[in-house]
Write a structure and sequence with these properties.
heterodimer, A: 439 residues, alpha+beta, Dna Ligase, domain 1, 3 domains, four-stranded antiparallel β-sheet, 12 helices, 27% helix, 30% strand, elongated, B: alpha/beta, Rossmann fold, 8 helices, 11 strands, globular
Chain lengths: 439, 272
């Protein structure tokens, strides 16, 4: 048996940790083993002997739990062959119960590490008992007659002489955890510190359910001392394209979103809710790793980039059947699903770069100039159409998007191969415009 | 295990051969054994490369192509003039292998129908509109670190030396080639990129490429690579294949010399 005991921070008023903290820790621990129990309403114990192989051996598992517990701001777990022994070690501030035989380790511990012995602390100390070893050395018959049955039972269970029974913690169906912040937080990015702890618990819950999330909500409650206009609090829902339980990705996304939030009042409490949970297919840990899977997927990176820059600045093209250069391609946010059908490809020469607005060129005589004289190589390619296409302009009037243009391929000595057009202006004049570059 | 597979320790031949074996090979003067690197050779082998599309350029690049897992700098006098003409071959190679093409902060809007002549595909192209230098650097670094793109082309006109060095360190773990397009002035700054290329174009449908930094000796000569952009090859007449001659004539005969504008003056615009 391999037991780990975790002692969360206690509430100073009741000398016990709050239920939220215990539940959160137990939920997080369920990702390692289904055998998680809350002992004496003050500690969480995990039985891990069946999980060592899954997590790559005892040493790696111990390391992993220790690192994650540190992130959750728990003290390092104590390890022992029985749960009461692990708890006693944790209370005594020791971590390793496997360094010596169990009775030697336990014999040296003080009385108050075992709750059943702590009750009789006064009597036992008058008998001259300072440690658990002293109590165990007393004759069993006298001990059972003078003290209650729990003391002997607890001693035997801690030393592994009698079986223990536990009520295992059940995995909740829905994840919603609250966290009271240590101090009032006034800047939104600073919420991430507390939110990351909740995210860790959520990722543990997701791992225990073998699923991932596509949407989760972070709610915050404003402190009682707030202005009247501030309201109770706010919330932020974060969606991802693919179901995931990658803590790094989720907390980065949350950080990007929190950076844009402005808090109206100091925040005292946080709550994290997993809104949309989907089954997640895990990647197999094969002997030969798949080279394509080595990095994170492009969708995840694009999501993060879009979270910082805004979704309208991470774009994918969609071809449209149109001859006007401005309307040939629609740029859509990359997160949107691509259309099933794309427009046919013409195969005609087209520049690879386009100016956002056609640039009016100066002319010498009827010859266009752009960084020196241009030589017209090929043309005219007449493009005429768009009378059916009306868009409102700045003043709200509908304007036809008609274009009547003669396109030419022009060559410049310095600016490369250009795609320019010649069109009529309003007052019977005509002008040259630069619209693209064959780069 | 059968008996035949057991080695015979008392093999008479090996006993005889042992004393004649020379312990130290002698080097004959003027003859360099294999495996010794010579100064005139290209530098240490670059493991993964992507063909450029021009055998002449491949031959001059260490490893025979654009290097993966590192940064390559492309310097040009003006932005958005030669990029796709130079990188089109690499782009076609990546896209046919299913890689994604990511553009970070191009100076002009990319135009997909033109890029398709270089093998781009609507499903494999992402344009990140990063405007400020900090945004460009951040997006480029995120893309390199994630190692999810097939090829990354970033325009970083204002990047500093230490920023390029940081990107190069990140790129060591990235399988895709990373191209940084920078202005010509960056040539005089030092840079951590192992491959630096200066490219301009020549009027006669050629690119002039100068590899002024590579792993190996500097290349003194300038490469001239044929390149006709954007599907123009199908519409060029033999006379147009040498526009520099037309340019000369245009300059000497002044404005009316070239035949193309004369045609344009005949073509009436007021017909509609």
């Amino acid at each position: 048996m391999l037991w780990a005991a975790l002692l969360p921070d206690v509430d100073p008023s009741s000398r016990l940790p709050s239920t939220d903290v215990l539940n959160g820790t137990a939920t997080w621990a369920l990702q390692y083993t289904p055998r998680v129990a809350v002992i004496e309403a003050s500690a969480v114990a995990l039985e891990l002997s069946a999980s060592t192989r899954l997590f790559g051996g005892k040493r790696q598992l111990v390391e992993r739990i220790r690192n994650q517990a540190a992130e959750l701001d728990l003290t390092a777990p104590s390890w022992a062959p029985t749960s009461l022994a692990a708890l006693a070690l944790a209370r005594a501030g020791q971590t390793n119960g496997f360094s010596k035989p169990l009775d030697q380790v336990l014999d040296a511990l003080p009385l108050d590490t075992l709750t059943a012995a702590k009750v009789h602390d006064a009597t036992l100390s008058r008998l001259g008992c300072r440690t658990l070893g002293d109590v165990r050395a007393l004759p069993r018959g006298g001990l059972s007659r003078r003290f209650d049955a729990q003391l002997l039972t607890a001693l035997d269970q801690a030393y592994g002489l009698r079986p223990e029974s536990h009520a295992w913690v059940q995995l909740p169906d829905r994840f919603a955890q609250r966290l009271e912040l240590m101090s009032r937080v006034e800047m939104a990015p600073a919420l991430l510190f507390g939110a990351r702890r909740l995210l860790l618990q959520m990722c543990g819950w997701l791992a225990a359910r073998r699923s991932g999330t596509t949407a989760f909500t972070l709610r915050w409650c404003h402190d009682v001392m707030r202005s009247k206009t501030a309201g109770d609090g706010g919330e932020l829902t974060i969606r991802t394209a693919e179901a995931t339980r990658n803590i790094e990705h989720l907390s980065r996304l949350l950080a990007e979103h929190l950076a844009k939030v402005e808090l109206k009042a100091p925040v005292g409490d946080l709550e994290l809710v997993a809104d949309d949970v989907r089954a997640l297919e895990e990647t197999s840990s094969s002997l030969l790793p798949d080279p394509v899977q080595s990095g994170e997927s492009l969708a995840l990176v694009m999501e993060r980039v879009a979270a910082r820059l805004g979704p309208q600045r991470v774009l994918r093209p969609v071809l449209a059947a149109d001859h006007r250069m401005e309307w040939m391609v629609h740029w859509r946010p990359a997160a949107e699903p691509p259309p099933r059908k794309s427009a046919p490809i013409s195969g005609l020469p087209q520049p690879a770069f386009m100016l956002p607005q056609p640039l009016k060129l100066a002319a010498r005589g009827d010859r266009p100039l752009y960084q020196g004289p241009l030589m017209l190589l090929s043309g005219p390619h007449r493009v005429e159409g768009g009378w059916w296409h009306r868009l409102p302009d700045d003043s709200g009037e509908q304007r036809s998007q008609t274009v009547i243009r003669d396109y030419w391929v022009a060559l410049s000595e310095h600016a490369g191969v250009l795609w320019i057009f010649h069109t009529r202006l309003d007052n019977d004049r005509s002008a040259w415009f630069l619209q693209g570059v064959f780069a | 295990m059968n008996a035949a597979a057991v080695p015979q320790w008392q093999d008479p031949e090996s006993v005889e051969a042992a004393p004649t074996r020379r312990l130290r090979p002698t080097v004959v003067l003027g003859e360099i054994p294999d495996g010794v690197w010579k100064g005139s050779e290209l530098g240490s082998k670059v493991a993964e490369t992507i063909p450029t599309g021009w055998p002449a350029l491949d031959a001059q690049l260490p490893g025979g192509g654009w290097p993966c897992r590192s940064i390559s700098e492309v310097l040009a006098p003006q932005p958005a003039v030669i990029e796709w003409r130079l990188l089109g071959g690499a782009m076609r190679h990546v896209v046919t292998n299913g890689g994604q093409l990511v553009l970070v902060g191009p100076p002009k809007h990319p135009h997909l129908p033109g890029l398709m002549h270089d093998g781009a595909d609507a499903r494999q192209l992402i344009w990140v509109q990063a405007e400020t230098p900090a945004e460009r650097l951040w997006v480029t670094e995120q893309m390199i670190k994630s190692d999810a793109a097939g090829v990354i082309v970033a325009w970083l006109p204002q990047a500093r030396q230490e920023q390029i060095r940081r990107l190069q360190v990140c790129a060591l773990a990235c399988q895709a080639p990373v191209f940084l397009c920078r202005p010509e002035a960056a040539r005089h700054e030092s840079s951590a990129a192992p491959l630096r290329v200066h490219a301009t174009y020549h009027l006669d449908w050629e690119l002039k490429v100068e590899i002024f930094k590579r792993r190996g000796p500097a290349l003194e000569t300038e490469l001239r690579l044929p390149s006709i952009p954007g599907g123009l090859a199908s519409i060029l007449t033999p006379r147009l294949l040498e526009p520099s001659r037309l340019f000369k004539r245009m300059e000497t005969v002044d404005a009316v010399g070239s035949s193309a504008p004369r045609r344009r003056s005949v073509q009436p615009l007021a017909v509609h």
